[in-house]
Amino acid sequence: MKQSFANSISDKIIIIIIALIVITYFLFITVPILAVFLKIEPSQVSAQIRNAGIIEAIKLSLITSAIATVIAFVLAVPSAYFIVTRNFPGKTIIDTLMDLPIVLPPAVAGVALLYTFAPKGLLGPIFNKFGYIIPGSLIAVIIAETFVASPFLFRSAKVGFENMDRDIVNSAKMLSGSRLRVFFTVTFPLSIRAIISGAMMTWARAMGEFGATLMFAGNIAGITQTMPLAIYNFLYYDPLAGITLSVILIIISFSILIIVKLLEQKRFGAKK
Amino acid sequence: MIQITSISKSFGEKKVLGKLSLEVKEQEILALLGPNACGKTTLLNILSGLTRQDEGNIYINDVLVSGKACTRKVYLKPSERKVGYVFQTVSLFPHMRVNDNVAFGLKTLRLPRQEVKKRTESLLDFVGLREYATFYPSQLSGGQKQRIALARSLATEPQVLLLDEPVSAVDPQLRESFRLELKNYLQALKITVVYVTHNLSEAFVMSDRIAVMGNGHIEQIGNRTEIFDKPSSNYVAQFLGINAFKGTAVKANSGVWEVKVNGVPLLACLATNLSGKNVTVTIKPEDITLQQVSRPKRVLGAE
Questions:
Q1: Strand partners, B246
Q2: Is some CB atom of chain B closer than 8 A to the CB atom of A178?
Q3: What are the residues whose beta carbons fall under 8 Å from the beta carbon of B62, sequence distance 6 or more?
Q4: Taking CA atoms, what residue in A is nearest to B41?
Q5: Environment class of residue A270 by beta-carbon count within 10 Å: exposed (0-12), middle (13-18) or buried (19+)?
Q6: Which of A76, B100, B264, B285 sits in a 20 to 30 Å window from A225, CA-based?
Q7: Which residue of chain B is at minimal alpha-carbon distance from A182?
Q8: Could you give the CA distance from residue A13 to residue A22 in angstroms, rounded to a whole number?
Q9: Strand locations in chain A (E)
Q10: What do you get for the CA distance between the two ends of chain A, in Å?
């Protein structure tokens, strides 16, 4: 009796401790986000949205991140399919290298891109010959975003292709000699959720890109100043504008997460 | 008709098939029987072209589909071999309706739309599921799914049909009735069928002949009686659950030999003179009758 009483007391203490940990963590993540929203009123947001600097930053972010996502799609999805379906020497190394930008500090990515595309960099002279200077241009923003964000799509597409039921793909191969037809009618539709969720993550990451863009493209209003860079600028002389941009980015990020969650809930064609 | 000559296949270090040869007759239903991981599925995959063998040739209706002719390497794609394949797992395209699943192969044949529709309907009729044409696979039972998979594999009018444990995707309590249905379909088709199973009774029910597979090659091939009465090796006897005893052939009396097994005399039918040789005697469980006299009544199948 005494024993079980002691047990129930210690159980309760453990539950309370765990509850405290959970609540602390939950607040640690949500309070800062709430703090942004508390700093501004809806009427102020709608007033700020007419601010030319804000509109420019939003436009720039939307355009560059959309282009980066499309480029990522064109490059990463076929690459993921190739990596999953083929065996070749050095596959693991290449596969790991492709994921590197996910963990690489963005500042390092910026430096790496500079030493590649700057006029005196590795590939810079080639662009120079044709009269292009990449750093400090809109193209640099797109390159930085693609470099940092595309591995999310690559990874997700890889998981999608890997989880495909082999028998389903083989059934298609038995019936159709065209690889393209098998890919577009069976493999692709069955991995579309993984690919879309990867594309959404890539887009979100591209929208939020700061470090590599700052290092490689600079912070030039109207040319390379995307939303995160604009927030950084505004925060000193026009805090309300910075907060408005932050609110918009939080809403976009949160919406993307919800869409990704919904997509991941049910993946047909995946292994049971 | 299928002819497989001396096929070998290794995955890395692991040898899966070693110089396997097999002949399947025209319009025959051959069961490929063997324990799990003995290379049955690999053999089917090689036959279908999904996997390439390291050595050996495969002929389907006297056409070399994979292997070497003189010094020329031949490899026909799975879709060019006129082979249908029903897989072990339910492999219907989950994002397509039943009729689109069945029509998948027909569409590659570039037939007119009306013809595709007509053939799809007749295939659905064949497996008795026409009213399910607009359903998605997830709305069907395991047995229905495999019937659709069968219809889909038949769409391209294959000359050879491969089935890899098709019953295992069906709920256990419905397997018996599905087996009988499937057998009716296969007999009606009148094409060459290779049916992979690890289930003894299934092999006997479904097939005309049985090839017992083990250790990467065919241990024995024959009909039910041949295999049961004269298992060609210890492996086959063991797999079929037949008792096998090692002994020495002692003497013959008008074709019936006395074999000493641990000092106990057993009578066995031996075709050739094996006097003094070490032999293995097999006794089928159903041939054992218990009597008061402590002598076996009948002993069969020795070598």
A1: B280
A2: yes
A3: B1, B3
A4: A167
A5: middle
A6: A76
A7: B104
A8: 14
A9: none
A10: 47
Q: Do B93 and A176 touch (CB under 8 A)?
A: no
What's the structural domain count of chain A?
2
Identify which of A174, A178, A185 has the shortest CB distance to residue B85. Answer: A174
CA angle A193, A198, A199 (to 5 degrees): 100
B124 contacts B71 by C-beta, under 8 angstroms: no
Tokens of residue B25, six digits: 């007759």
Residues A10-59: tens digit of each pLDDT: 889 999 999 999 999 999 999 999 999 998 888 888 888 888 888 899 99
Q: Rounded to an integer, what distance in angstroms lies between the CA atom of residue A143 and that of residue A109?
A: 11
Whether B193 has its CB under 8 Å from any CB of chain A: the answer is: no
Question: How far, rounded to the nearest angstrom, does the alpha carbon of residue A181 sit from its chain's CA centroid?
Answer: 30
Alpha-carbon distance of A93 to B190, in angstroms, equals 51
Q: Is residue A271 part of a domain?
A: no
Distance separating alpha carbons of residues A125 and A166, to the nearest angstrom: 46
Q: Where are the domains of chain B?
A: 2-229, 242-287
Is B76 strand, coil or helix?
Answer: coil
Fold for B242-287, please state it: SH3 type barrels. (2.30.30)
Kindly list the strands in the beta sheet with B2-11, ordered across the sheet, starting from the edge strand earlier in the chain.
Answer: B14-24, B2-11, B55-60, B63-69, B72-75
User: Cβ of B155 and A175 within 8 Å?
Assistant: yes
CB contact under 8 Å between B85 and A171, yes or no, is yes
Which residues of chain B does A174 touch, with a Cβ-Cβ cutoff of 8 Å?
A: 48, 50, 78-79, 83-85, 105, 153
Q: What is the ipTM of this complex?
A: 0.83
Q: The tokens of A105 are what? A: 């500090």
The SS3 of residue B85 is: strand
Phi-psi region of A226 (alpha: psi -120 to 50; beta: other; left: phi over 0): beta
Q: B149 vs A189: CB contact, 8 Å cut-off? A: no
Residue B287: CB atoms within 10 Å: 17
Q: List per-block mean pLDDT (blocks of 10 residues) for chain A, which spans 272 residues.
A: 70 94 96 92 85 89 95 96 92 93 94 92 88 90 96 95 92 91 93 92 94 93 92 88 91 88 63 38
A34 and A95 assigned to the same domain:
no
CATH at A98: 1.10.3720.10
A167 to B156: CB separation less than 8 angstroms, yes or no? no
Closest by CA position to B133, among listed B172, B102, B110: B102
B89 and A165 within 8 Å at the Cβ level: the answer is yes
Q: What is the largest CA-CA distance in chain A?
A: 87
Distance CA B88, CA B85 (A): 10
Containing structural domain, residue A247: 52-265
d(CA B88, CA A168): 11
Class of domain B2-229: alpha beta
pTM of the predicted structure, to 2 decimals: 0.79
Comparing alpha-carbon positions, the chain B residue that sits nearest to A192 is B95
Q: CA of A176, closest CA in chain B: separation in Å?
A: 6
